[in-house]
Amino acid sequence: MLKIYLAEDQVMIAQALKTLLELEDDLKVIGTATDGKQALKDIIALKPDIALLDIEMPSLTGLEVATQLKLLAIPVKVIILTTFAREEYFAQAIKAEISGYLLKDSPSDDLIQAIRTVTNGQTVYESRLVKGMFDKSKCPLNKRELQILNVMKEFSNTKQIAQVVFLAEGTVRNYISAILSKTGTSSRLEAVLLAKENRWI
Predict the structure, then answer these.
(1) Considering only CA atoms, which of 150, 96, 162, 152 is closest in space to residue 125?
(2) CB-CB contact of 55 with 82 (8 Å)
(3) pTM given for the model
């Protein structure tokens, strides 16, 4: 059973989301809040597996909550669920190392799938934002992802990449999924070509 915490300042939307999530046999909403300060306090205390956070809330925004959770090293996967398709918000979310960023107009099945995907260590980002955020000079990848991408220039086999970077194959697969998601690419070759084009590697 996956434990979910929901922070949404619009009560009707929060109730609808809670009902939707609890229709799934493996999901349980263990707490809700309508402001960021309460959400941060509850998440630290309740230790959910997933925190679904709206961005614009009283006290603290969802992005501020996500940043605090990262600084405190709280082991929770954060999914931002918002109406705002703003590149600056998405850039802040990437910096806070959130696991997912979805828009509220996404199909409900996408949210359910995203929850299960991030639980497995992968990331899920709204493709419209990934493609739109690039001024092509800013690299969205962290140091480890760049290292793996650099190795991918020479090796396409996950086992070989894992041996070079001294990581488990499953860990490498998770990093590669994050690379594809953050760059908006659909294959390892496409990611490498994009990185070369923008001189990230």
Answers:
(1) 96
(2) yes
(3) 0.66
Q: Judging by DSSP bridges, how do beta strands 124-125 and 27-33 pair with one another?
A: unpaired
Tell me the per-residue pLDDT of 31-78, one tens digit each, with 9 for 90 and over: 999 999 999 999 999 999 999 999 989 999 999 999 999 999 999 999
Q: Single out the residue of 106, 115, 85 nearest to residue 24, CA to CA.
A: 115
* Angle 13-86-44 from CA coordinates, rounded to 5°: 55
Segment 183-193, tens digit of pLDDT: 878 889 988 98
